[in-house]
Amino acid sequence: MPRIYDLHTHSTASDGTLTPPALVALAAARGVDVLALTDHDTLEGLASAQTAAGTAGLILVPGVEISVTWGGRTIHILGLGVDRRNRTLRDGLAEVSVHRRRRAEEIARRLAEAGITGALEGAQAFSNGRLIGRTHFARFLVQRGYAADEREVFKHYLVKGKPGYVVGNWATIETAVGWIRGAGGQAVIAHPGRYRFTRTKLLRLIGQFTELGGVGIEVVSGSHTRDECLLFARYAEETRLLASVGSDFHRPENPWTDLGGMAPLPGFCTPIWAEWEETGWPWTRF
Length: 286
Ligand code: AMP
Ligand code: MN
Ligand code: MN
Ligand code: MN
Prior knowledge:
With about 290 residues, the protein is an alpha/beta fold. It has helices spanning about 20-30, 45-55, 85-115, 120-125, 135-145, 150-160, 175-180, 200-210, 225-240, 275-280; strands at about 5, 35, 60-70, 75-80, 185-190, 215-220, 240-245. It has two domains: about 5-95 and about 170-285, TIM Barrel (Alpha-Beta Barrel); about 95-160, Orthogonal Bundle (DNA polymerase, domain 1). Helix 1 (about 20-30) runs parallel beside helix 2 (about 45-55), helix 4 (about 120-125) crosses helix 5 (about 135-145) and helix 5 packs across helix 6. The protein is globular, with a radius of gyration of 18 Å. Adenosine monophosphate binds near residues 15, 135 and 168.
């Protein structure tokens, strides 16, 4: 039986709703053999996830999803197999979390101008003192009845042109890929379908990314349609990137990001785990 991989998931260390051990337990129950925890801009969940993985009998790939500003836009770069003790990566992400904190204050200030008070405290109640992001604001706004669900809140309050939008000033792609490689990891372009780039722009991104030493692209993703999976599979083949698979799971209530339940990679792709399966699983040492 081929192994089941899910290489993109979130826990309460960023904007997921399950603790790292609960996420690992659910993944194991869903039949996942190899799970990457890839919280936004933090490594905090990895130690407890690793311990839980030992108990659950699955392989935990220590990961991270780094926010990057590229071409005036926010994109996400996954780091798979990073050493969570790496000093440069840790220090870099600590700086990002300072930026996140400042951005959160600014989001709250703008929401207050739009008549929505107490948003910083409200969002913090959801982030529980950990990394803060727009999802925590979304949950607060849903709780207050401003919209029916998180998607609606994003659409009306938290994206460009809306009252609570604050532009992110994230790491450069050079910096992010450098941190990942320096920590022994492999860099992967996350959910390319989400960016709505033209072919020219996506190829420019891939060109820069591979020149910096990036090696993979997410082909199968919870935010891709089946057609997009095929499209990005062809990009992967054409540009010789390794193909990755991830649900981008955040919480059990979202059926479209089904933990471990993603479609298989098209047969012509080279999966990012081809080499892992050949040379073994280094991550238990972390
Ligand atoms: P941040 O990194 O704080 O800007 O937040 C980005 C996160 O917000 C993403 O990882 C998603 O979890 C969530 N998100 C972004 N756009 C949407 C949307 N339209 N609907 C629901 N969640 C979204
Ligand atoms: Mn998220
Ligand atoms: Mn993402
Ligand atoms: Mn994600």
